[in-house]
Amino acid sequence: MARRRQIYEGKAKILYEGPEPGTLIQYFKDDATAFNAQKRGTISGKGVINNRISEHIFTSLAAIGVPTHFIRRLNMREQLIRQVEIIPVEVVVRNVAAGSLSKRLGIEEGTQLPRTIIEYYYKDDALGDPMIADEHIACFGWATQDEMNDIADMAIRVNDFLSGMFAAIGIRLIDFKLEFGRIWDGDFSRVILADEISPDGCRLWDIKTNQKLDKDRFRQDLGGVEEAYQEVARRLGLLQPDDDFAVLDLDSHRKKRGR
Question: Which of 76, 219, 233, 238 is the most interior residue, by most CB within 10 Å?
Answer without folding.
Answer: 233
